[in-house]
Design goal:
The protein is an alpha+beta fold. It contains six helices and 17 strands.
């Protein structure tokens, strides 16, 4: 049986219990994507890059309390963008959502940011109001790919700076295999180049000096003969979401398997100049094998990465 007879694409809106919204400042080239879990989620994480900007990721470690996560926020703004989660918390608190401490309900919100300060305006970053607006947009639950939300200021192929980089964005893809559903949401803001793993075709990345074609980031990287600060503002951040029933620890394993989607599409990837992070959330009770779920997560992530650059 052919794979496409087993796995079929679905709309992200078919992921029951998940709502996604975007908000952005198109002039400043920065934004927020909010993933809201209506009934909470069991969430794990995989951090493979050397410079993540993140919030509350320690909540996702297997040794911490097993409380449901209410939202995941992806944003621009580097570490400044972490302020967007304040608006998400305000939105959730107003609706009585969060961990009940006895005195107040505290929403549990995790966040990761990309560095996009060199794309538009460095003095304008996602804030609490933008985070709140992304939650309001999630009420419609019709998120766009490309230069929307946290993908507004995303770029790839930045070994030689922004002058030779390519525009990237936000990618979303969801599938169903039997009763198991899997979705991926990713903001592609990588040092490396982006490829279609099926054809090997380069989709975006470092450009030649004249801008007429693509250069090869990997080959150019090999020319560096001594330790160099490659910081150019890179981080690919994303999440996979499933209706499969898994524990927080199992979701961390699925997140690490989803990283294979990064490796298939981005080269080089996971460098010290990247802050690559993947969240993995379980929002259902469907019985599923972890190996099947992790393998599917990698495939869905790869498709979402392709959409992030093709939708520009």
């Amino acid at each position: 049986m052919e794979r496409n007879e087993i796995v079929s694409e679905i709309s992200i809106s078919e992921m029951t219990g998940l709502r996604i919204g975007n908000a952005q400042n198109d002039e400043a080239k920065t934004g927020v994507t909010a993933l809201l879990f209506e009934h909470g989620a069991r969430v794990g994480v995989d951090v493979s890059g050397g410079g993540p900007a993140s919030r509350e990721t320690r909540l996702l470690e297997p040794l911490t309390a097993d409380n449901p996560i209410n939202a995941i926020v992806l944003s621009g703004g580097s570490a400044y963008g972490l302020a967007a989660a304040d608006g998400v918390m305000r939105y959730l608190e107003e609706r009585g959502i969060g961990y009940d401490t006895g005195f107040a309900k505290v929403p549990l919100v995790c966040q990761s940011c990309i560095y996009d300060l060199g794309t538009g305006r460095a003095d304008v970053r996602p804030d609490a109001d933008m985070g709140y607006a992304a939650c309001e947009d999630a009420e419609k639950n019709c998120p766009k790919c490309g230069g929307a939300g946290a993908g507004c200021g995303a770029t790839v192929g930045k070994l030689y700076g922004m002058e030779r980089a390519s525009k990237s964005g936000l990618g979303i893809h969801a599938v169903q295999a039997g009763n198991l559903r899997m979705a991926a949401v990713v903001v592609v803001n990588a040092l490396g180049d982006i490829f279609d793993p099926d054809s090997g075709k380069k989709l975006a990345g470092l450009r030649t000096e004249d801008g007429g074609s693509f250069a090869d980031t990997r080959r150019e990287l090999y020319k560096i003969s001594r330790q160099t600060d490659l910081f150019a503002g890179n981080t690919t951040i994303g999440a996979v979401i499933t209706n499969g029933k898994f524990s927080k620890a199992e979701m961390s394993k699925i997140a690490s398997m989803a990283r294979n989607g990064y490796a298939r599409c981005i080269n080089p990837v996971g460098t010290m100049a990247d802050g690559d992070t993947i969240y993995a959330a379980s929002i259902g009770e469907t019985a599923a094998d972890i190996n099947v779920a992790g393998t599917l997560a990698a495939e869905v992530m790869a498709e979402a990465i392709k959409k992030a650059v093709k939708a520009i």
